[in-house]
Structure formats: structure tokens, C-alpha cells
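SAMPLE LOG
Freezer: B-3
Tube label: C17
Construct: single chain, 463 aa
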Amino acid sequence: MLLRFRSCLVASFLAALLVVPLRAVEPVQICAGLPAVGVPDWMRHEIIYEVNVRQYSDAGTFAAVEADLPRLRELGVGVLWFMPIHPIGEKNRKGTLGSYYAIRDYAAINPEFGTEDDFRRLVKSAHDQGFRIILDWVGNHTAWDNPLATSHPEYFLRDASGHFQPPTGFDWTDVIQLDFTQPGVLAYQFETMARWVREFGIDGFRCDYATGVPTLFWDELSRRLREIRPDLYLLSESELPQHQLRAFNTSYSFEMMHTFNHVAAGEAPLSAIDATLARTRVRFPEGGSLIYYTSNHDENSWQGTEMERLGVTADAFAVLTFVLDGIPLIYNGQEIGLNRRLEFFERDPIQWTAGGDKMEFYRNLCALKRSHPALAVGAPQRRILTTKNESIYALFRGADEAAAVVAFLNLTKENAHADAYDPALAGRWRDLFTGEVVDIVRTFPVELEAGAYRVLVRAESRP
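STRUCTURE (predicted):
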């Protein structure tokens, strides 16, 4: 009876999937008021750190990352996201080494990085030191020379001439598009992902170009995976709200990242941040979450470093990614102020002794995020108004005013002075970065140079 029931579920799933347009981006579904999957408890106070193994060290190996785990532990991050670790396709390869996202074998390890045993040791060492590990999963396409193209050619879409085709709308000529109406595609992805969870103890997946895969596919895939591990974490590289109804715990905040860029360039007012947050509240389900960031592998390599895009306000926006209700992301090298675009298809190791030193800056932010109840995913947030709202963004976090955090950020290129007033500000505070104790009676004068910031943490109960 159970087998028959599951067969009916699969048949119903495939029938529903057949009516989903395969080549069109799904429309945004307004999900306000609907319950989200939510984030597992272990993720509510976490920071994701993105590891680009190829560029992480001169060696470009798992062993080099493993040797650096104590430094990352000192930094304060708790979740390590590894860009794809699988062998890269050779047919139609881009550049010398190719793209991580052109995967030749989902079940194997890229020999450039080491062996399967090397990766097992890295995961075990990371777990022993308190980290969680999430892997990049490329579910939309494969390399041209992935064995699936020979053993299961029916898994792929064809053009009018019957040939495999790359995803449309991009220059991704090194990969070919999967066909999600084929039941074997779902079965293969589930079994392969399940192996990484069962045999390696992987804690979650960041799903690449999740927009290209039908939501119904993700819903069924996630259902099966969570039968193995209920607290598995899934991050969608997409901003489709419906992804968080059944499948994903967290989505990307593409719109907010673009808003940061526009505000920093003087192309949009600070109120654009509020408008973006408002749209998020309307679109996403209750209990949903986003990641916030000023850089990642795509932005760094193709759009520029955070210094190029955000200029003098880069640090202030980084602070904002930590105090907004969401999950902050650090891309490897940001903690030293890496001001260089890393090559994508070639070896281009980070020089950890070059650039500035932002370890203390990020260490303070990570420690606060990981320990303070006001910065947990889902804790309330609201903007505090000042007399200079066009220059200073003030954000209050926390449901309990006796345990609150408030950030004052000058997100412009000009010095600014303002007075802030809110009844919740009354009391004693400690400056996160200087340790200075600040007593606020009624109003708070804020004087910030261009791109400067202050983060105040409630020091004691309000009088």
C-alpha cells in the first residue's frame, strides 16, 4: 500500500510538472501570510562564509582550507559554503580550468582539490571544530561531457535539430540544459545529493541558479532529502518567494544587493532600502529569510569588488548585512579587505598578506550576530527616524528593548550630523567597536563622516 501511495505521489508530481513552462522564468508568487519552511534552529544566529577552493590558497586544495580552519573559527563564522567541488567538464570548457558550475560528475571530487579522503578529512575536521558545511549544487545543467549525456540523453532538452542545448538567455556555452519532466532527473539528483548527506555528513546545499528549475521539482526533491535529515539547510540562488513555501529555508537578496549599489552610487535615496524591505515583506511567506551580502564569487569576478561598487560606504553596508533580519554572507578575502577581482576560469590565489586587515571588524560583527538575541533570524526590526534621513540609516533590532541593538550608518559620500529620537533609545548602551558606554536620555546626536557607522548594544536594562 505504501509503495502504491508513493507511486501515485510521483505520478501526480510529474503530471503537475508537465504544465510548468520549462524555458520561461516562473512568475513571482505573492506569499504574504503563508507559512515558510523557516530556518533550522542551528542557522538562526549563523554567518555563511563562501570558500572558493581554487583561489583560497597557493595550493588550491582541501588540505590548505583545512589548515586554515582555526583562523576561520577565530573570525567567528559558523557555516562554510564550498563552491562546487566536483570534476569540471572539458568539452567546450571556458578558460584554462573551466567553470566550477560545468560539472562532469556530481558524485566525484575535482582532483585539482585533492581526493575523496582529503574532503572527508576536511569535513570531519570542520565538524569537530564546530562548523557546518554546505555544498554548491548545480541542478539546472551539466557539462557537455557529463556521462549522463551518454547514458541518459533523454535527461536533456534538445533544439529544433535534436542537439543538446545550453540554457537560453546566457552565454553558458560550456553546459547543457536538463529536462525536468524526465522522472530520472529527479531520481538521479536525489540519490546523488543524498549520498553527500549520508556518507559525508553535509549539512545543506546552496542551489545554483535555482530560478531555472521548476519550484515543483525543488519541492519534491527537498521533501525526499528531509526524510533523511529533517534539519537540512537549503539556500536558493533565486528570489522567487514560492521557493520558501515547501523547499528552501533561505533565498538570495538580489534586489537588496542592487539597491546597495544604487544608493552607494547616489542613484537612489536611502528610502530605497525601505522600499526593498517592504516588497520583501509582501512577497515572501511568514518566517522566510534572505541572505545579505556586499560580495560573492559572481559579484567579485564580474561586477567588481565591494570597494569598486560601494566605495567609501563599503564597510557601512557590510554592517547593514549583519544587522538586517537575515543571514550575512562573507566571501573569502573580504576579511582582509581584498580589493581585487579574482579570475573565474584560471588560478588566481588570494594573497592573504596583501590588502588591509578587517579581521577585527568582521570578528566583532560575527560575535554579535552569533550571540545576541536581537540579531536572530526573525527578531523584529524597524527603522528609527532622524533629522537626516537622507544620509543616515538607523536600524533598531530586537523585541525586548532591554536586549536590543541599534545601528547608525552614514550610507553617503558626505559627512552628516543628525539627531535621533525614539523612546526605545533611552538608557545605557555600549559601542560595539570602541567599547564606549553611551547614555541616552531622550535624543541621540549622531555625527558620522562619509561611510562611517556606529553599532550600539544595550548595556543594561532601561530605567
